[in-house]
Amino acid sequence: MRPAPTILHLDMDAFYASAEQAAKPSLRGKPVVVGGIGPRGVVATASYEARVFGVRSAMPTAQARRLCPNAAYLSPRFTLYRQVSETVMGLLHALSPLVEPLSLDEAFVDLEAGGVAPETAAVRAVGEQLRRDIRAATGLTGSVGLAGAKMLAKIASEQAKPDGLVVIPPGTERELLGPMSVRTLPGVGPATAETLRRAGIHTIAETAEAGEAELVRLLGKAHGAGLYAMALGQDDRPVVAERDAKSISVEDTFEVDLTDRTRVRTEVLRLADRCVQRLRAAGRSGRTVVIKVRNYDFSTLTRSETLRGPTDDPAVIREAAVRLLELVDTTGGVRLLGVGVSGLADFTQEDLFAQLTTEREAEELARAAEERAGAEPAEEAPEEERPRRWHPGVDVIHDEYGAGWVQGSGLGRVTVRFETPWSAPGRVRTFAVEDPALRPGEPLPLVGGGPAVDQSSDPAILPKSVSEVPESPGDAASDPGEEISRR
Ligand code: DCP
Ligand code: MG
Predict the structure, then answer these.
(1) Is the CB of 273 within 6 Å of ligand 1?
(2) Residue 363 above 80 pLDDT?
(3) In sequence order, which ranges of 120-260 are alpha helices (DSSP H)?
(4) Distance CA 8, CA 324 (A)
(5) 227, 231, 228, 229: which is closest to 177 by C-alpha?
C-alpha cells in the first residue's frame, strides 16, 4: 500500500452509448442502447438515461426493449470506439510510462512512475486535468479514481461515476470499505457472495472481522487469504504496462452453470472478441491461445494452442478458442470460462497474420457483433447481388443530403437522420433500400470536424446531479461477468 494515492484508474462513462450520443446530436440526453439488435442479441451498454429504466450490460436486448421501448437501439460501431480509445490511451501514456489498459475504455496509470509528486493535491490536479483533456479531445466524459492500490482506485472511479473524480487518501480505506457489500471486492461473484452470506458475512467490514482462518475454511486457501487481504484494503499488485505483460486474458463466471453446448460456444466466442479488444488496446499480438474452463465441481483446466506466429486477428483467435473447446467435456456444467493470449509480441515484430486490411477487420467485427446479436451470418453472395442491409446506427452518405445515420429499416425502406457530431439535431428522411444515392459512410470524428463548437456546453451525458440513478438490487445479477472481468 502506497503512502500517497498515486494509482489512477480511468473508466469512460457509458462508453459506446456516449460515443453514439456525441456522434448523433438528436440522441443527446435520450435513452440509447448499443448492442446486438437481433432477436437473440444482448446489450453491450446503455446510456445513463436508459439505465434509469433498468437496462444493463449483458441483458438480452429483448428484455431491454420491454423495459425501455422508447430508447434508440443501435448496432455497435467498433471502428469509432477503437479510434476514441486510442486517443484516450494516448493521453494516459503522456502521464506515465506505466499504463495498464483493461479494456477499450478502462486503464490503470501509475502516476508515481510518471514523476507526479506523491501528494493528494498534486495527483488530484493531474486527474482533473486528464478529465478536461479527454473531454476536449473526444467530447466524452470519463471518471477517475485515485488511491494507493489498484483495487481501491477502481472502487473510487466507480464511486465517481458519472463524470467525476474520487480520491481515497491512504489510511481512510478501511472506514470507507467497511459498509460496502462484499460484492464490491474483485473476485467476489454471486457464488462466493452466497457462501459468505450463509456464514452471515455481507459487508467488507464483516469479511475483515471474520478473520483469515474463517475465510480460508469457507473458500479455500488461495481465495480465502486473498479475500482477507482485499477486505483490509491490502493490494500490492503493481501497474503493469501491457508491453511488459506476458499474457492478456478475460474470463467470466456464470451465475448459473452453463450446460447448453451452443451457449458455451457463444460465450467462448464473445470472450475471444473481448480478449482481442484488449490485445489491440495494448497494441500487442500473441502467439498462444489459451482457454480456461471451470466445471460445476470447481475442477479447472486449461488448453492451449500455439500458432505459427503472433496474431491479433479476431477470426484466428476465435477459431483457435473454439478448436480448444472441442477438447473439453462440458456436459456436467460450466461455472467459468476464460480466453487468453500469451507469447505476446509488439506489432513491430514479425506478424504473419497482420496483412489484414482494415476493411476485413471491420467485417470480422461486424460479423462478430452480428453473431452475438443472433442474426444470420453474412451472406456469401458477392456485394452486388446482396440485398443491402442497413443496420440501425450505421453511417451513410446521401448524394444530395450528405452525412447521416440509419435510424431504422424494413419493408424495403430505410429511414436516415441527417446530422453530424458538430451539427444541430438533424431531419429524418425515408428512402428505398436500393436508392442509388444512398451509400455506406465512415464514422466522423467526434470533435473538431465542423465549425467552432463549444465543447463545454453540450455534454454527451448529463451531469451527475441529473442523471444519477439508484442501483437496482438485481443489477449485479444482470452481468455474470462482473466478478472477474471487472477486476
Ligand atoms: N461492454 C460490452 N459487454 C459488456 C460490458 C461492456 O460490450 N458485458 C462494452 C460496452 C461498454 C464498454 O464495453 O460501453 C465499457 O464497459 P464498462 O463496463 O466500462 O461500461 P460503460 O463504459 O458502458 O459504463 P460505465 O459508465 O458504467 O463504465
Ligand atoms: Mg466504462
Answers:
(1) no
(2) no
(3) 120-138, 150-160, 173-177, 190-198, 204-219, 221-231
(4) 37
(5) 231
Q: How far apart are CA 147 and CA 365, in angstroms?
A: 36
Given a cut of 50, whether residue 478 has pLDDT beyond it is no
34 CA closest ligand 1 atom index: 10
pTM summary value: 0.75
Please say if 385 is a catalytic residue: no
Do 211 and 290 fall within a single domain? Answer: no
Name the average pLDDT for the chain. 84
14 lines ligand 1 (CB under 6 A): yes
CATH code of 291's domain = 3.30.1490.100
- Give the other-Cβ count within 10 Å of 262's Cβ: 8
Distance 438 CA to ligand 1 centre (A): 32
Can you give the residue range of the structural domain that contains 297?
Answer: 247-356
Question: Which of 313, 390, 316 minimizes the C-alpha distance to 358?
Answer: 313
Which is it for the CA torsion 144, 145, 147, 152, positive or negative?
A: negative
Q: Is the CB of 13 under 6 A from ligand 1?
A: yes
Cα of 17 vs centre of ligand 1, distance in Å, is 9
Note the pLDDT of residue 292. 95
Q: How many domains does the chain fold into?
A: 2
State phi, psi for 328 to the nearest 5 degrees: -115, 135
Return the closest-CA partner of residue 373 out of 359, 389, 397: 389
Q: How far apart are CA 461 and CA 459, in angstroms?
A: 5
- Closest ligand 1 atom to residue 13 Cα is 26
